[in-house]
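Quick question, first post here. What does this chain look like in 3D?
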Amino acid sequence: MRALVYNGPRDVSVEEVPDAAIEAPTDVVIKVTSTNICGSDLHMFEGRTTVEEGKVLGHENMGIVTEVGSGVTRLKEGDRVVLPFNIGCGHCRNCQRGKTAFCLEVNPGFAGGAFGFADMGPYDGGQAEYLRVPFADFNALRLPGGTEHELDFAMLSDIFPTGWHGTRLAGLEPGDSVTIMGAGPVGLMAALSARIQGADQIYVVDQQADRLALAERAGATPVDFSKGDPVEQIMEATKGVGTDRGVEAVGWQAHDHSGTETPAGTLDTLVDVVRATGGIGVVGIFPLADPNGPDPLMQKGRMDFPYGTFWMKGLSMATGQADVKRYNRQLRDLIIAGKADPSFIVSQELSLDQAVEGYEHFDARDDGWTKVVLHP
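> Answer (accepted):
Ran it through. Tokens below.
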């Protein structure tokens, strides 16, 4: 089968690889119909992770079941499914508590596994024609048959649940105001999620005009940090009060307007702009270490953080990858009911043969390249 393979920093290619196959009775194989390029894929593309050469990338996957293992009882050939990016066993302590992003069984020595991602186990990704799905009865979410809502459903694999998770980590309640750092796909999904949950005011901070336009479409107030200090802009808009909640949706590769990488920059802004006793949810990636990065502290997995201000304001902060299965069924039903339209961010639909082009444009933040979906 053909798949997108990581060869080294900024070097990916579509190659022939061994066919996806049943390896355990609880597996299924799917024919991939949609697989997204994620901002997290760019960390690997840019050589900022320990992903091994030859890895098939792609953790935002959906498709049609084509083979079923002998131990699978809920799924059958022909079922249309979407897969959480994180792989859970379904029976460990964390999975049974709903913490499927931190499964204790699928990646020994580490809490959590995922498709096609650095340090998240031996699992190939789905930027390929076919994909093996472990523990399929537990992990696969069935969808209505046909092709309706294909792009919306594809967002259930990661970014829509992750954006929702950011608002839940922040403690968002109806009538709250929220500042969201980053108008990439996850930040835009956090804005959509906040709107659905009844947020009063939503501010989304970025400097990319195309992304800020989408934030406004999602019901948020765009804040362009290239035009001034975002803290000052939001404090002025809120008459000096700040917002009740904050969501970090960028991660450690955040940049200031000059292009300088500032790993703690987004968190600094949220500590300043979230009102005393408010909450911050962090869903942007912060790695164990960034040995190839420019920041000496982040090379060791540390950062300069204004803990004194954070403590004196009585702020709370919760972090971590989204437990996609906690949210994806309900979000699927919101899509079917016409109450959520996460595909509004999709800018390009490409074939697998165009995947390299998609990576290059998305990584360059070229205008109009906000979310790329591949159809192998």
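The mean pLDDT is 97.
The first helix runs from residue 39 to 45.
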